[in-house]
Specification:
single chain, Lipocalin, eight-stranded antiparallel barrel, 3 helices, 9 strands, Lipocalin-like domain-containing protein, signal
Length: about 160
């Protein structure tokens, strides 16, 4: 398994994230709460899921934990979003953790098992739907295509 992950991680570095001006994510610059701007996925069911639940928030913590919620409705403010993330994390019984295999290459574990492996970058300038500061996540080559744009919530 470790050699497969190392090979896929190398692919991520070569594959790029499709944004002209972006720097690799790291354990420090992803910390915070992010809202979904857009998602494109080849994995069956993902597009249909986001059509039903188009609002999504992810919170990356300094300890590597990730909290996630998708919803059919928007939330009024940051406090409501954070409370929703806390409540969902307490109820869902699933733990997500990020391991950094290299700068910009993240392995997401779900309940301690590999779940997603991808490249993460932070946009340095506006580029189409991407704004400076957005997080761009793409699965590595060889995995079902996934392209996510997340925008950091203002403090």
């Amino acid at each position: 398994m470790r050699s497969v992950i190392a090979t896929l991680a190398a692919s991520a570095v070569v594959a790029g994230a499709g944004v002209a001006s972006a720097q690799p994510c790291d354990a420090v610059n992803v910390v915070g709460t992010w809202s979904l701007v857009s998602v494109r996925a080849d994995e069956p069911g993902v597009q249909a899921f986001y059509e039903r639940a188009p609002y999504e928030w992810m919170r990356f913590k300094a300890d590597g934990s990730v909290h996630y919620v998708a919803s059919t409705r928007d939330r009024a403010n940051r406090a409501e979003i954070e409370a929703t993330l806390d409540r969902t994390d307490a109820q869902d019984g699933v733990d997500y953790v990020i391991q950094w295999l290299d700068t910009g290459v993240m392995l997401m574990l779900r309940d301690g098992q590999p779940f997603q492996l991808g490249q993460c970058r932070i946009a340095e300038a506006d580029d189409g739907p991407v704004r400076a500061g957005d997080l761009i996540y793409t699965n590595v080559e060889g995995m079902p295509s996934l392209h996510r744009i997340q925008r950091r919530l203002a403090d």
